Amino acid sequence: MKIPYVVSSNTRKAYSTSELMKASPGEASRKINAEDFEWDDELTPAPLTYFAALALSRIFHRLNPLRKILQKDIDMLMDLYPADIPLKFSVPCIKDEQYWKRSFYSKFPSRKEMGVSYWKGKFLSACLQDYLENVKPDIFIEEDAIELAKLVSPYIFELGLNQLQMVRQPTPPVLSEDAVEDACVYSVPKVYDHIPLEPVLVRLFNLNEISLIFGINNLQDGYLMRYFEFSLADCESLCRGLEYLQHLRIFRINRSNLDCSKVKLILQNLVKRESIEELDFNHCKIGDYGMKALGGFIFIHKNVKRIRIANNRFKEVGVQGIAYALQMKPAAPIELLDFSLNPMSLECATIFAAAFVRCKEKPQTLIVNSCGFHGASAEKMAGLLSLNRGLTRLDMAANNLSGEAEKTLIQALEQNKRVLRVDLRSTHISEETQAKVNELLERNKKLVGQETEPSEEIPPLYLNEPEYLIWEYNPNNPDYIPGRYPERIPEV
Amino acid sequence: MNGKYGGRDEDEEDVLAPKEPQVTSEDPNERKAGRALRIKRRQEALKRAEQPLEEIFKEEEPGHIEQATTSAAEELQRLALDGAAKVTNVKVTTDEREVIRRALFSAKMRDSMAKMEAEASDSQIQYDAISVNWDFMLAIKDPLDIDAAIKEQKRKCDVVLKQKEKLIDELKQDLKKMDNAYYEDLDKQDKDIKELSDRIEKQLTIMQRAYEKQLFLIEQAINIEREIMVDHNNKRWEALYKQRDKEEVAHMEYKFEQLDEHKLEMEAIMWDHHAKYREAKIELETLIQELQKELEKLKATCIINTEKIGYNYQVLKKREEENVFVRSQQKRKLNKMSDVANTLRAKIRKAADDGAMEEIKADAEIIKLMQAMDDLEKKCHHFSHVNNYKFCQVWRMSVSRCNALCGRVRRAETALHAHVLAEPPPKPPPPPPKSPLSKFVSLDPVTTTVVSGSNPMDGKENPMSIAAHEAKDRLVRHILQLIADNTGFLVEDRLLKLIEKYPLTSRNLCTLDSIFMALEIQAEEDIELLCKIFLNYAFCPICIGLEATSDMVEPSSLAVTSQEESHHVSISVKGHADRSSTRIRSSVVRSISASTSRSMHVGFRPHDLSAADQLLMAEADEIIQKCGDPKVTLAVSDNASEGGSTSGKRGRGVTVASQPTVVSPKKPNPFLCPLGHFLEIESMQVLTALNEFMSAFVPPEKKKLYGILDSVKTPDFGSPSRKLNVEEIEQYWSQWKNLFSSEKDRFWDGLLSGLNNYLTILQDRERIHEDVLQLRQRNAALRGLVRGALPELPHAAPRYRRPRRTPFVAATPDLAPPPFAKLPLI
Name one GO biological process term (chain A) (predicted). Predict the structure, then answer.
């Protein structure tokens, strides 16, 4: 007897008879085992229902029996239906997760997925992704894409595109004998267009999360620089599509040639979407100008929580843009900022310190891994912990914190009772410092949930009193290390 | 026994039952304690439920499983964090490397850029030097020099080129190095990735192992706890078993003892029973013997009885037969009677049918007759009208003829006087007599005007005042209240009981409804009538006292005036009901103020009371009249002498009321007393008033009948012509006849005879005249004959031929009016 998939293997294992019981003198002599479900697998042919289901499974496109048969037969059929039923028939009729799981693994054997809770959406999303990644823009038929999108749209909550095909570069006209024409290859305008995403995106009304990578994978010898460009027209099409996504929460463009003008265009459109929670532009080329636009976005938007801009080639000006937005106490409940892999100077560190000293509550997490902090800049970054009370996690891995910065870090951590995690790997700090840091972090972890006196937290002397305005203690002073104060003189 | 039971109980309690006071126990104190304990426990449970979960966990001693799971969770978390750190270490190192690379790259970039720029400036200087040289070369004319110069230039250019090439080579080498570094980096990346995957795998295995270990630990903990629990439970079980055994033994012993006791008891009872049984047996046997004796006796009496009953049976049988015979006879009679009844019933039905038929027929006939009557009436009317018309025509014709004759007579008279008597015309004759018809014609319009004239008077009175309305409403309400209070006998007792609990107004409504039903009062006019009648009994409670005092002060002065006035007032006011009513009212007021007995006398008809009561009343009345006010007695006697056109009470009322009527002759509001107070009625007079009302009031159905009877009046066919009687007509015409006096007649007769005589003379003279004329003519003719041939003499006109005189016309005009300028209209 075949046990339907709805009975999970764990259940069977849990309810199976233990060996001890089987070996017990009363049980050992039994001939008929009621609990043995596989006794007839080799002895008798499969039941007639199985064959009927087998026959039915082959003609699903002609006959849909699902509404007329019993649930146990449906369960059986779900194991039997081939994965290649056209989506046109299967999508509206089949709700069963098992079928979609099977289909997913049979159609995309190379993809390994973990923790999938909704296989139908996953499968359909993968189908759409497969179609969009591989369709050639020159032979792209919009109607087909629209049809597919319409069919799958209610079930898709995530969409990730790891590559997008590009249009063919038009070649100069073939030289004829008498005509005088410009046959130079370089005089033909370059085109970097991809398929328009708008007609598809417009229909995916349930979409929560979208990840895009403009580029082509597995090129091998056909590598061309132009394959990793993308045009403003693509951006515009994308933006028009985004206008219709009411539930979009996470927006990612990674590893793409996303320069400042494109990111500005995208951000201008996204700022109208109140639902956006995460922006991820890792490994792009936003640059200073794009960072300014992002600062404006943070300042205006009401809901954005996480911003990732690792490896984005920006300098002091860009950092200042973001820092300005943070200082203005934006309405958005920002939780995480990821600046890793952007080489930063002392000035950047100063700006950071100023921003985080002034904006004390908002970001809970700051990631500045591998930002090239060293010496004074590292000291500044470590020192900002002494005045900030919002951060619970500071990642500073792969920065050079040796020397003075260690002491500053310890001092700052002694004053800060909020921070719970500080990543200090490959920072060239001494073992003692690491041990001390761990000790202080343990202290902070134990303090979680306990109310602390606000006066204890931040010394009022250095906040809104005239001392704060003295340039010496101004966070914007590049020579000033935050947290390093003179002895406190009690006010009379 | 009890001791044993108790012992067992103690044993039980030792092991099983908690030593707590039980709610189910017999001892009340223990029950109380048990209840208190229960309440306390419940409160504790509630408190525990309210507390957050953590505290509960804190309170409870953490078991093995909890300890194991928490430690496992901590351990696993630590391991997971370590693993994650290990795995991400790869990324960190690569990142760090990348940072270093970038720093190196940027430094190198800067160096090479500086180098390139230095080289560029150097080569620029050289190039400038070369390019400056060309100008000098142009000045050189010698080809050899030119060649040398060119070579020199070329050399210099080569140097620059070499420098450039060197730089390019260096850069190319840098590129190569970077390529190599890139490949190395790629290798490193591969290695990194490999290491990453290795670490991940390692981590996976580590985690797997850790999980397995923790699972094992948790299982162990579970097993340990299970064993502990099993041991614990086994111990409890064993204790229970032991206790059970003990109890069983004790119970068995107890049972055996009981059994022995039962056996002994049974034996004693058996003996007892046996003795009793024997006694009973002897007694019963003696009883049986006695009963047998009695049985014999009974048998003998039974035989006698059977004989008696047999005889009775025979007699009854005979009677039965007779009864059957009588019954059949009765039945026959009954049949006959029913036949008769049926026939009678049929007859009655037939008679009823016939009656109905006849009725219908009579109805039809009546209708026919009515129609015929109508026709006849119409015809009568028509004929009377025609007759009247013709009569009038004839009348007018004769009047006109008379007129004409009169005229002629007058004219003749005047002519006579003028011509014959040569006198002024005589006095005109008297005017023609008045037609008796004309008075009928002129009568009708006058009556109509009289009728219409009376109307505006009513209209004037209507808007008199709103106060009157108000007063009236109030009075009506008062009257109705009185009626409702005093006529309980008209209402059913049950209804009264039902409406007892409702407020006064609704109760009144109910009672009034039933009273009106009983009295058949339906329309508003009936209420008006009621009000009017009750008004007679109304009095003003405020004014009574005043009046009484005033009366007492000046009785003598008023006595005479009131007597005098009473005459003419009673005469003048006869037609006005209102005024009399006011007087009556005031009389009632007086009577009430004076005494109740008189009001009784006023209120009740004599036949309402018994003879003794009447006597008593009469006496009381007399006494009061004598001592109260002598004026009233005088008035009574006076009224009695007058002939009692009004009833006794009214007469008395008149005498008293004369004063207010005289003092204020114009009384605007009958529903208020003269001083404007509201009137009231004494409840004792309500029944009297009601009686009066009932006599005056005609219930609507009867009224309808009366109306029908009234409407059937003989039609009036009287026309003016018919109304005239013969004497009138004769008188009228005789007046015409005597228009000219008999003297004139006689005068005219004399004149006629004289004239007649004169006529014959005149006739003779005429004849003689004519003879003369003839003779003259003959004479003339004869003379002609005589003369013959005599010449024609001039024709002389005869002297006697004078012109004809105009007839005589009266010199004085006739002043007499024409007898009838116009014919009288009918």
Answer: cilium organization
